[in-house]
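Quick review question:
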């Protein structure tokens, strides 16, 4: 099957030709006719399966030119990185069409984005909070929206965007088509979709295991953070200079800590990206990783979701992912577009149950590699790794009431609710003094 077998408009075929895309992926082929028929659709697809084109192609095929400046297609995604990625895919697909696309996300000046929105767009891509703020402020008109895509709805909901999504729905016309994409159908996702979608049709990307066949997966047993650092050093040094290595850590603090630990050896070849970094620096880092000036990129899960970097040769799970689904997301960053890749996971003692969950989801046992060469492991634990010792009776209690400072009593007095009967006579007396009695004549 080729894209010519899908009933696409010519400008889209031409754009696909330019991009060198001839064969639709499973989710693109399976989803196209369902979405074109106008039915609500649930796409079960992880990143790397071609899910973005799977919804963009039918949306763009159904799009009709309108003089209205308001968007007909609304794409809601969880992160800013994904906004820019989807916008760029739209731009690539519409080189032969007169379609205006606009991306909006939080953390940047709202007025600038409001001005851009007011210039008009056919497709609006954005994160939930910013879409809602723009709609509330009146800059963004959503009454013309016919197609609503929620990409990575699982991530969107787990980030707590449910109220924003529901609020956005209030601004939309009741007659609309939903196309919702999710890596997994958790209970939270299913119950959300049950409430809002009408008789949705489910389409699935190629089975989870399949695209991962090109990825060589292995694990190492490592005792602690500093030993992980030593092993990471070793692995980086023993890979050829052309390798592009994406290193996942569990938190922003650990991302920065790891960066400082290996920075001296790698210099400019090392980058770090997480949500506390300024937006410009995030884009710049990803760009440098894409063009290869950065060879090793340290990232957290959320940010890495939106990174579409080609030729990632190695994914290293410095920290095991919290959810098994994230393992698939992470390693899916390598082995893309007919390339092979390597995924390496560091496993400490406390990671055993997380590892088991991954193996169950993958329906595959992960093999451990024994270290033959010398890597200096250490027993030293950093403060955050040390077990917390709780001595009975030594737990710090709230200070006794008497010992609390003045401010406590002041606040307490202020907060005290007492029903006081208002005595008008007394109040007047306090204000004007006792009334003079009329003297008897
Ligand atoms: P996604 O799953 O949407 O993040 O897409 C992963 C990558 O695959 C992106 O870089 C797409 O541009 C690319 N891609 C999507 N569809 C195709 C296709 N049919 N043939 C080749 N590459 C594709």
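Suggested answer, residue by residue:
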């Amino acid at each position: 099957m080729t894209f010519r077998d899908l009933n696409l408009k010519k400008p889209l075929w031409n754009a696909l030709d330019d991009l060198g895309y001839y064969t639709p992926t499973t989710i693109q082929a399976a989803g196209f006719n369902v979405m074109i028929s106008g039915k609500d659709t649930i796409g079960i697809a992880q990143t790397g399966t071609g899910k973005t084109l799977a919804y963009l192609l039918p949306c763009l095929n159904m799009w009709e030119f309108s003089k209205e400046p308001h968007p007909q297609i609304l794409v809601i995604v969880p992160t800013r990185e994904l906004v820019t990625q989807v916008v760029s895919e739209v731009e690539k697909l519409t080189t032969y069409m007169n379609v205006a696309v606009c991306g909006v996300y939080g953390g940047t000046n709202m007025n600038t984005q409001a001005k851009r929105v007011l210039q008009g767009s056919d497709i609006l891509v954005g994160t939930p909070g910013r879409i809602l703020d723009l709609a509330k402020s009146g800059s963004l008109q959503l009454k013309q929206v016919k197609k609503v895509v929620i990409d990575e709805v699982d991530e969107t909901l787990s980030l707590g965007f449910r109220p924003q999504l529901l609020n956005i729905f209030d601004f939309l016309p009741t007659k609309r088509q939903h196309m919702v994409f999710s890596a997994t159908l958790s209970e939270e996702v299913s119950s959300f979709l049950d409430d809002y979608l009408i008789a949705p049709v489910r389409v699935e990307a190629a089975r989870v295991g399949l695209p991962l066949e090109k990825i060589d997966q292995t694990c190492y047993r490592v005792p602690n953070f500093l030993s992980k650092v030593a092993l990471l050093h070793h692995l980086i040094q023993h890979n050829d200079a052309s390798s592009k290595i994406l290193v996942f850590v569990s938190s922003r603090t650990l991302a920065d800590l790891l960066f400082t630990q290996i920075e001296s050896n790698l210099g400019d070849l090392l980058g770090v990206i997480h949500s506390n970094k300024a937006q410009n620096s995030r884009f710049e880092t990803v760009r440098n990783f894409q063009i290869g000036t950065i060879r090793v990129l340290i990232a957290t899960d959320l940010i890495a979701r939106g990174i579409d970097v080609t030729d990632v040769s190695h994914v290293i799970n410095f920290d095991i992912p919290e959810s098994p689904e994230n393992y698939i997301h992470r390693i899916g960053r390598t082995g893309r577009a007919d390339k092979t890749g390597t995924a390496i996971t560091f496993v400490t003692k406390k990671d055993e149950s997380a590892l088991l969950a991954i193996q169950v989801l993958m329906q595959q046992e992960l093999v451990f590699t024994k270290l033959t060469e010398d890597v200096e492991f250490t027993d030293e634990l950093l403060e955050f790794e040390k077990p917390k010792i709780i001595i009975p009776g030594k737990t710090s209690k709230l200070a006794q009431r008497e010992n609390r400072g003045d401010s406590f009593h002041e606040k307490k007095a202020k907060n005290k609710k007492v029903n006081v009967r208002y005595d008008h006579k007394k109040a007047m007396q306090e204000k004007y003094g006792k009334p003079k009695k009329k003297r008897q004549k």
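Why it works: The pocket of adenosine monophosphate is lined by residues 21, 23-25, 28, 47-53, 308, 337 (CB under 6 Å). The radius of gyration is 29 Å.
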